[in-house]
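User: As part of a screening pipeline, I want to sanity-check one entry by hand. Below is the sequence and the SMILES for NAP. Please return the complex as C-alpha coordinates so I can compare it with the automated output.
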Amino acid sequence: MSVEKWIIGTGFSRGIGYELAKILKDNNYKIVHMGRKRSEFEDVFVWWDLLNPISDSPFPELSKSIYGKAIVGFIHCAGVMPILQVSETNRMEKHLFWQSQAEAMRINYFSCAEIIEDILPFIMSHTDNGSQNPPFVAHLSSLSAVDPFPNLELYGATKSACLLYFKWLSYRFAFDELNCLSIHPGTVHTDMVSNVISNESSDLEVVKKYKELINNNEMLTPQAAAENIYKFLFIDIKARESAHGKLYLSDKATVYK
Ligand SMILES: NC(=O)c1ccc[n+]([C@@H]2O[C@H](COP(=O)([O-])OP(=O)(O)OC[C@H]3O[C@@H](n4cnc5c(N)ncnc54)[C@H](OP(=O)(O)O)[C@@H]3O)[C@@H](O)[C@H]2O)c1
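Assistant: Here is the complex for your manual check:
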Protein backbone atom coordinates (compact mmCIF):
# COMPACT_ATOMS: atom_id res chain seq x y z
CA MET A 1 0.00 0.00 0.00
CA SER A 2 1.44 3.41 -0.92
CA VAL A 3 2.10 5.91 1.89
CA GLU A 4 0.05 9.13 1.98
CA LYS A 5 2.38 12.06 1.34
CA TRP A 6 1.48 15.30 3.09
CA ILE A 7 2.31 18.91 2.25
CA ILE A 8 1.69 21.69 4.77
CA GLY A 9 1.20 25.18 3.36
CA THR A 10 -0.23 28.68 3.52
CA GLY A 11 -1.74 30.91 0.84
CA PHE A 12 -3.62 28.16 -1.03
CA SER A 13 -6.85 30.20 -1.21
CA ARG A 14 -5.85 32.42 -4.16
CA GLY A 15 -3.22 33.23 -6.76
CA ILE A 16 -0.08 31.12 -7.21
CA GLY A 17 -0.74 29.08 -4.05
CA TYR A 18 -4.23 28.12 -5.24
CA GLU A 19 -2.86 26.82 -8.54
CA LEU A 20 -0.05 24.98 -6.77
CA ALA A 21 -2.54 23.29 -4.42
CA LYS A 22 -4.55 22.17 -7.47
CA ILE A 23 -1.44 20.58 -9.02
CA LEU A 24 -0.51 18.94 -5.68
CA LYS A 25 -4.00 17.45 -5.43
CA ASP A 26 -3.83 16.18 -9.05
CA ASN A 27 -0.59 14.43 -8.11
CA ASN A 28 -2.16 12.72 -5.10
CA TYR A 29 -0.52 14.74 -2.35
CA LYS A 30 -2.53 15.34 0.81
CA ILE A 31 -2.72 18.96 1.92
CA VAL A 32 -2.84 20.72 5.29
CA HIS A 33 -3.76 24.36 4.61
CA MET A 34 -3.30 27.10 7.22
CA GLY A 35 -5.12 30.30 6.36
CA ARG A 36 -8.20 32.49 6.52
CA LYS A 37 -10.12 30.96 3.62
CA ARG A 38 -10.33 27.42 2.34
CA SER A 39 -9.18 26.44 -1.11
CA GLU A 40 -11.10 23.54 -2.63
CA PHE A 41 -8.08 21.25 -2.47
CA GLU A 42 -7.07 20.83 1.17
CA ASP A 43 -7.68 17.65 3.18
CA VAL A 44 -7.22 19.47 6.50
CA PHE A 45 -7.93 23.18 7.04
CA VAL A 46 -6.50 25.00 10.07
CA TRP A 47 -7.93 28.50 10.37
CA TRP A 48 -5.24 31.10 11.00
CA ASP A 49 -4.98 34.76 10.16
CA LEU A 50 -1.22 35.09 9.72
CA LEU A 51 -1.40 38.57 11.19
CA ASN A 52 -2.10 37.05 14.59
CA PRO A 53 0.77 36.98 17.06
CA ILE A 54 2.41 33.70 17.94
CA SER A 55 0.65 33.62 21.32
CA ASP A 56 -2.64 33.06 19.41
CA SER A 57 -1.11 30.37 17.22
CA PRO A 58 -3.28 27.36 16.40
CA PHE A 59 -0.27 25.12 16.99
CA PRO A 60 -2.04 22.61 19.28
CA GLU A 61 -4.67 22.09 16.57
CA LEU A 62 -2.02 21.94 13.86
CA SER A 63 0.13 19.44 15.76
CA LYS A 64 -2.89 17.14 16.26
CA SER A 65 -3.52 17.31 12.50
CA ILE A 66 0.03 16.47 11.45
CA TYR A 67 1.10 14.03 14.19
CA GLY A 68 2.26 10.71 12.68
CA LYS A 69 1.79 11.87 9.09
CA ALA A 70 4.50 11.46 6.45
CA ILE A 71 5.33 15.10 5.71
CA VAL A 72 7.12 15.76 2.46
CA GLY A 73 7.44 19.52 2.92
CA PHE A 74 6.09 22.93 3.89
CA ILE A 75 5.51 25.84 1.53
CA HIS A 76 4.63 29.41 2.54
CA CYS A 77 2.70 30.84 -0.42
CA ALA A 78 0.89 33.54 1.59
CA GLY A 79 2.14 37.07 1.10
CA VAL A 80 1.08 40.68 0.85
CA MET A 81 2.33 43.81 -0.86
CA PRO A 82 2.47 46.78 1.55
CA ILE A 83 1.36 50.31 0.57
CA LEU A 84 4.04 51.66 -1.78
CA GLN A 85 3.92 55.43 -1.28
CA VAL A 86 4.21 57.40 1.95
CA SER A 87 2.65 60.82 2.49
CA GLU A 88 5.18 63.35 3.81
CA THR A 89 2.45 65.54 5.34
CA ASN A 90 -0.68 63.57 6.24
CA ARG A 91 -0.14 61.95 9.67
CA MET A 92 -2.98 59.45 9.29
CA GLU A 93 -1.76 58.28 5.88
CA LYS A 94 1.77 58.05 7.26
CA HIS A 95 0.50 55.91 10.14
CA LEU A 96 -1.38 53.60 7.73
CA PHE A 97 1.72 53.30 5.55
CA TRP A 98 3.89 52.09 8.45
CA GLN A 99 1.15 49.83 9.79
CA SER A 100 1.00 48.20 6.36
CA GLN A 101 4.82 47.69 6.39
CA ALA A 102 4.59 46.01 9.81
CA GLU A 103 1.75 43.74 8.62
CA ALA A 104 3.69 42.77 5.48
CA MET A 105 6.75 41.94 7.61
CA ARG A 106 4.58 39.72 9.85
CA ILE A 107 2.84 37.87 7.01
CA ASN A 108 5.80 37.60 4.61
CA TYR A 109 8.47 36.78 7.19
CA PHE A 110 7.60 36.25 10.87
CA SER A 111 4.60 33.97 10.34
CA CYS A 112 6.63 31.80 7.96
CA ALA A 113 9.55 31.48 10.39
CA GLU A 114 7.22 30.81 13.34
CA ILE A 115 5.35 28.03 11.53
CA ILE A 116 8.57 26.41 10.35
CA GLU A 117 10.14 26.46 13.83
CA ASP A 118 6.96 24.88 15.26
CA ILE A 119 6.63 22.12 12.69
CA LEU A 120 10.33 21.27 12.31
CA PRO A 121 10.18 18.36 14.78
CA PHE A 122 7.31 16.84 12.77
CA ILE A 123 9.09 17.28 9.44
CA MET A 124 12.37 15.95 10.86
CA SER A 125 10.75 12.95 12.56
CA HIS A 126 11.43 10.99 9.35
CA THR A 127 8.08 9.27 9.35
CA ASP A 128 8.56 7.19 6.21
CA ASN A 129 7.08 9.29 3.41
CA GLY A 130 8.00 6.80 0.71
CA SER A 131 10.13 9.48 -0.94
CA GLN A 132 13.80 9.19 -1.87
CA ASN A 133 14.14 12.96 -1.56
CA PRO A 134 14.91 15.00 1.53
CA PRO A 135 12.02 16.94 3.11
CA PHE A 136 11.85 20.62 2.23
CA VAL A 137 10.72 23.95 3.62
CA ALA A 138 10.06 26.63 1.01
CA HIS A 139 8.65 30.12 0.68
CA LEU A 140 7.59 32.24 -2.27
CA SER A 141 10.28 34.89 -2.27
CA SER A 142 10.93 37.62 -4.81
CA LEU A 143 13.72 39.10 -6.87
CA SER A 144 12.91 42.21 -4.80
CA ALA A 145 14.69 40.49 -1.90
CA VAL A 146 18.02 41.07 -3.63
CA ASP A 147 17.42 43.55 -6.46
CA PRO A 148 14.15 45.45 -5.99
CA PHE A 149 12.43 47.17 -8.90
CA PRO A 150 11.83 50.90 -8.06
CA ASN A 151 8.96 51.26 -5.53
CA LEU A 152 9.30 47.64 -4.33
CA GLU A 153 12.17 48.34 -1.88
CA LEU A 154 10.18 47.91 1.36
CA TYR A 155 8.23 44.91 0.03
CA GLY A 156 11.71 43.60 -0.84
CA ALA A 157 12.82 44.18 2.76
CA THR A 158 10.19 41.68 3.96
CA LYS A 159 11.39 39.17 1.37
CA SER A 160 15.08 39.82 2.25
CA ALA A 161 14.29 39.08 5.90
CA CYS A 162 12.76 35.74 4.98
CA LEU A 163 15.54 34.92 2.51
CA LEU A 164 18.13 35.49 5.26
CA TYR A 165 16.11 33.34 7.66
CA PHE A 166 16.22 30.53 5.04
CA LYS A 167 19.96 31.05 4.60
CA TRP A 168 20.37 30.64 8.37
CA LEU A 169 18.22 27.47 8.24
CA SER A 170 20.47 26.12 5.48
CA TYR A 171 23.45 26.47 7.85
CA ARG A 172 21.55 24.59 10.57
CA PHE A 173 20.54 21.73 8.26
CA ALA A 174 22.40 20.05 5.41
CA PHE A 175 20.59 19.69 2.08
CA ASP A 176 19.88 16.00 2.65
CA GLU A 177 18.41 16.65 6.14
CA LEU A 178 16.14 19.59 5.30
CA ASN A 179 16.21 21.31 1.92
CA CYS A 180 15.69 25.07 2.52
CA LEU A 181 14.29 26.83 -0.54
CA SER A 182 13.45 30.43 -1.46
CA ILE A 183 11.56 30.62 -4.76
CA HIS A 184 10.99 33.71 -6.93
CA PRO A 185 8.02 32.79 -9.15
CA GLY A 186 8.54 35.52 -11.78
CA THR A 187 6.07 38.39 -12.25
CA VAL A 188 2.65 36.78 -12.11
CA HIS A 189 -0.77 38.20 -12.93
CA THR A 190 -2.60 37.70 -9.61
CA ASP A 191 -4.66 39.89 -7.26
CA MET A 192 -1.38 41.21 -5.82
CA VAL A 193 -0.39 42.77 -9.13
CA SER A 194 -3.95 43.89 -9.99
CA ASN A 195 -4.24 45.63 -6.60
CA VAL A 196 -1.00 47.56 -7.17
CA ILE A 197 -2.32 48.73 -10.53
CA SER A 198 -5.71 49.78 -9.14
CA ASN A 199 -4.65 51.19 -5.73
CA GLU A 200 -1.33 52.92 -6.40
CA SER A 201 -0.56 56.07 -8.41
CA SER A 202 -0.25 55.49 -12.15
CA ASP A 203 2.97 57.59 -12.02
CA LEU A 204 4.85 54.88 -10.14
CA GLU A 205 7.51 53.01 -12.12
CA VAL A 206 6.23 49.65 -10.94
CA VAL A 207 2.66 50.42 -12.03
CA LYS A 208 3.94 51.39 -15.49
CA LYS A 209 6.05 48.22 -15.63
CA TYR A 210 3.16 45.95 -14.62
CA LYS A 211 0.88 47.54 -17.24
CA GLU A 212 3.57 47.16 -19.91
CA LEU A 213 4.10 43.47 -19.07
CA ILE A 214 0.35 42.82 -19.22
CA ASN A 215 -0.08 44.73 -22.50
CA ASN A 216 2.82 42.81 -24.07
CA ASN A 217 1.45 39.52 -22.75
CA GLU A 218 4.73 39.00 -20.86
CA MET A 219 3.34 38.41 -17.38
CA LEU A 220 3.11 34.80 -16.20
CA THR A 221 -0.27 33.28 -15.43
CA PRO A 222 -0.62 31.83 -11.91
CA GLN A 223 -1.04 28.39 -13.53
CA ALA A 224 2.29 28.65 -15.40
CA ALA A 225 4.07 29.93 -12.28
CA ALA A 226 2.66 27.04 -10.20
CA GLU A 227 3.75 24.47 -12.82
CA ASN A 228 7.33 25.82 -12.68
CA ILE A 229 7.33 25.65 -8.88
CA TYR A 230 5.92 22.11 -8.86
CA LYS A 231 8.57 20.97 -11.35
CA PHE A 232 11.32 22.47 -9.19
CA LEU A 233 10.04 20.99 -5.91
CA PHE A 234 9.01 17.52 -7.05
CA ILE A 235 10.71 16.66 -10.34
CA ASP A 236 14.00 18.50 -10.78
CA ILE A 237 15.64 17.36 -7.55
CA LYS A 238 19.18 18.22 -8.72
CA ALA A 239 18.09 21.87 -8.98
CA ARG A 240 16.77 21.67 -5.42
CA GLU A 241 20.17 20.62 -4.13
CA SER A 242 21.95 23.53 -5.82
CA ALA A 243 19.31 26.00 -4.52
CA HIS A 244 19.74 25.05 -0.83
CA GLY A 245 19.80 28.36 1.13
CA LYS A 246 19.80 30.43 -2.07
CA LEU A 247 17.23 32.30 -4.16
CA TYR A 248 15.85 30.17 -6.99
CA LEU A 249 14.28 31.91 -10.00
CA SER A 250 11.64 29.39 -11.03
CA ASP A 251 10.63 31.42 -14.12
CA LYS A 252 14.20 31.04 -15.43
CA ALA A 253 14.92 27.64 -13.84
CA THR A 254 18.16 28.91 -12.34
CA VAL A 255 19.70 29.99 -9.04
CA TYR A 256 20.13 33.79 -8.62
CA LYS A 257 23.79 34.77 -8.85
N1 LIG B 1 2.46 37.87 -8.12
C1 LIG B 1 3.75 38.13 -8.30
O1 LIG B 1 4.16 38.70 -9.32
C2 LIG B 1 4.76 37.71 -7.27
C3 LIG B 1 6.12 37.93 -7.56
C4 LIG B 1 7.07 37.55 -6.62
C5 LIG B 1 6.66 36.96 -5.43
N2 LIG B 1 5.33 36.77 -5.17
C6 LIG B 1 4.96 36.16 -3.90
O2 LIG B 1 4.19 34.99 -4.14
C7 LIG B 1 3.28 34.80 -3.04
C8 LIG B 1 1.86 34.61 -3.59
O3 LIG B 1 1.52 35.80 -4.27
P1 LIG B 1 0.22 35.93 -5.19
O4 LIG B 1 0.60 36.85 -6.27
O5 LIG B 1 -0.33 34.59 -5.50
O6 LIG B 1 -0.74 36.73 -4.19
P2 LIG B 1 -2.33 36.74 -3.99
O7 LIG B 1 -3.03 36.24 -5.20
O8 LIG B 1 -2.63 38.10 -3.49
O9 LIG B 1 -2.55 35.66 -2.81
C9 LIG B 1 -2.05 35.93 -1.53
C10 LIG B 1 -2.31 34.75 -0.62
O10 LIG B 1 -1.81 35.10 0.69
C11 LIG B 1 -2.84 34.87 1.64
N3 LIG B 1 -2.82 35.80 2.76
C12 LIG B 1 -2.63 37.14 2.71
N4 LIG B 1 -2.77 37.67 3.94
C13 LIG B 1 -3.05 36.65 4.78
C14 LIG B 1 -3.30 36.56 6.18
N5 LIG B 1 -3.32 37.66 6.96
N6 LIG B 1 -3.56 35.34 6.72
C15 LIG B 1 -3.57 34.24 5.94
N7 LIG B 1 -3.34 34.25 4.61
C16 LIG B 1 -3.08 35.45 4.04
C17 LIG B 1 -4.13 35.10 0.86
O11 LIG B 1 -5.22 34.52 1.58
P3 LIG B 1 -6.68 35.27 1.69
O12 LIG B 1 -7.48 34.74 0.52
O13 LIG B 1 -7.18 34.84 3.02
O14 LIG B 1 -6.42 36.75 1.60
C18 LIG B 1 -3.80 34.42 -0.47
O15 LIG B 1 -3.99 33.03 -0.38
C19 LIG B 1 3.43 36.03 -2.14
O16 LIG B 1 4.31 35.72 -1.09
C20 LIG B 1 4.07 37.06 -3.06
O17 LIG B 1 4.81 38.00 -2.32
C21 LIG B 1 4.37 37.12 -6.07
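Points to compare against the pipeline: The CA atoms of residues 7 and 218 lie 31 Å apart. The first helix runs from residue 15 to 26.
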